[in-house]
C-alpha cells in the first residue's frame, strides 16, 4: 500500500473544479501529488494508523443542520471513515454553526498558517446512502442530524465511482450479518401490501448499510409539481426531458465571475417550458429521527419560461463546465400568441 494505480488515480482526481474558488488551505491540498498526498493524509487527517486512503473526490457538500449553505470540500474515503476537508468560508457563513463545529482554536494569530475544518463520518456509524435523481448527488446518513451530509457532485460518473468505492470499503467491515428474510418475493420486498404503492428501490449491503435509489414515482411527483406551475396543462402530455443540477450566473457589471455570482439551481426542461427550481437536497427523504417536516418544500420555483419565447442560445467556448445563455423574447403579454390563435380560428 498504496499501489501505483491507486496513486495515479488519486493524483488525477485531486483537481478543484475550475469554476469554484476555495481557500488557501484547500489549494495547498489540491497541489499535492502521489506520495505527498498519501503522507499528508496519514500525517494530518487519518485517525487510525493502519487505515488506507482509497478514494479522493472534490465536491460541493450540504449539511442537514445548515441546508442553505453549500460549501466546497475535498472528500477522502478511507478503510475506516469518510473525511470532508471543508472550505474556511463555511465556518464563518452562519453564526449558529459555532456549537456544531465547537471551534475554539481556529482563529490563529499567524496569518501564514491555514487551518481547515474536517468533518469525520466513521463507516461504522453509516446507516444509509440515498442516491439522487439521475445520479446528480447522493446523501450519506449516520445516526443523528449531525451525521447527515449531501455531496452535490453534479456528475453521474463521480457519483457512481464514489458509490462503488464505498461499497468496496464497506465489504471489509466486520459486522454481524442480518438474519436472512423468510420467503420474500419481489412484491413483499419492494412494495407495500396495504397501499400497493412501490417504494424506492433499496439495496441492503452485506455491511447492513442501505443504498436507496429513486424510482419512477419520484419523476411522477416532479412532473405533477411542474404541471401545477403550468396553468391548464394536461399531466399526461407532460414529459420531463432533462433534470440537471447547475448554477445560475448572476451578471455583475464590471466584475469578474466568481463564486458569489453562482447560485445553485435545479434545471428542468419539458417539451414546452424551461424551469429553474431551488431544491432542498439534504432534508428529503425525511430521516427516521425527524419529528417534523423541513421548513421549506423540496422544490421551490424561481423562474419558468416558455420554449416558444426562446430567441437564441449562446454557448461559450470554454471547457467543461459549459456556460449557456438563454435569451428569451421580452413579451409583456405572455399569452399574446395564444389569444390571437383563439380569436382568429374560433371560440
TrEMBL record:
Primary location recorded for the protein, binned into one broad class: cytoplasm
Nischarin C-terminal PH domain mapped to chain residues: 240-346
GO MF entry, a single one: kinesin binding
Keyword RNA-binding: no
Signal peptide extent: none
Annotated GO biological process: Golgi organization; lysosome localization; regulation of protein localization
Protein name, per record: NISCH protein
Annotated ranges, domain PLEKHM2 PH: 114-178
Keywords: Cytoplasm
Subcellular location: Cytoplasm
Amino acid at each position: 500500500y498504496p499501489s501505483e494505480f491507486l496513486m495515479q488515480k488519486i493524483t488525477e482526481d485531486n483537481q478543484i473544479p475550475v469554476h469554484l474558488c476555495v481557500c488557501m488551505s484547500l489549494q495547498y491540498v489540491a497541489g499535492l501529488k502521489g506520495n505527498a498526498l498519501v503522507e499528508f493524509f496519514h500525517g494530518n487527517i487519518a485517525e487510525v494508523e493502519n487505515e488506507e486512503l482509497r478514494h479522493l473526490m472534490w465536491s460541493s457538500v450540504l449539511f442537514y443542520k445548515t441546508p442553505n449553505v453549500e460549501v466546497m470540500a475535498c472528500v477522502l474515503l478511507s478503510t475506516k471513515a469518510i473525511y470532508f476537508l471543508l472550505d474556511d468560508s463555511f465556518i464563518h457563513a452562519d453564526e449558529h454553526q459555532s456549537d456544531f463545529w465547537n471551534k475554539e482554536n481556529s482563529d490563529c494569530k499567524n496569518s501564514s498558517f491555514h487551518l481547515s475544518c474536517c468533518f469525520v463520518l466513521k463507516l461504522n456509524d453509516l446507516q444509509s446512502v440515498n442516491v439522487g435523481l439521475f445520479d446528480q448527488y447522493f446523501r450519506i446518513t449516520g445516526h443523528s442530524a449531525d451525521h447527515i451530509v449531501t455531496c452535490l457532485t453534479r456528475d453521474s460518473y463521480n457519483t457512481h465511482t464514489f458509490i462503488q468505492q464505498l461499497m468496496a470499503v464497506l465489504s471489509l467491515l466486520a459486522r454481524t450479518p442480518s438474519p436472512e428474510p423468510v420467503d420474500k418475493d419481489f412484491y413483499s420486498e419492494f412494495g407495500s401490501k396495504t397501499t400497493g404503492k412501490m417504494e424506492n428501490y433499496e439495496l441492503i449491503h452485506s455491511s447492513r448499510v442501505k443504498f436507496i435509489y429513486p424510482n419512477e414515482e419520484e419523476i411522477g411527483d416532479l412532473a405533477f409539481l411542474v404541471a401545477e406551475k403550468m396553468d391548464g396543462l394536461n399531466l399526461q402530455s407532460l414529459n420531463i426531458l432533462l433534470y440537471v443540477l447547475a448554477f445560475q450566473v448572476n451578471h455583475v457589471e464590471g466584475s469578474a465571475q466568481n463564486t458569489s455570482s453562482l447560485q445553485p439551481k435545479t434545471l428542468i426542461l419539458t417539451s414546452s417550458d424551461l424551469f429553474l427550481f431551488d431544491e432542498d437536497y439534504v432534508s428529503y427523504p425525511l430521516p427516521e429521527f425527524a419529528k417534523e417536516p423541513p421548513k421549506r418544500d423540496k422544490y421551490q420555483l424561481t423562474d419558468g419560461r416558455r420554449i416558444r419565447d426562446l430567441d437564441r442560445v449562446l454557448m461559450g467556448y470554454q471547457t467543461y463546465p459549459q456556460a449557456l445563455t438563454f435569451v428569451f423574447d421580452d413579451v409583456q403579454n405572455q399569452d399574446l400568441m395564444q389569444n390571437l390563435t383563439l380569436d382568429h380560428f374560433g371560440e
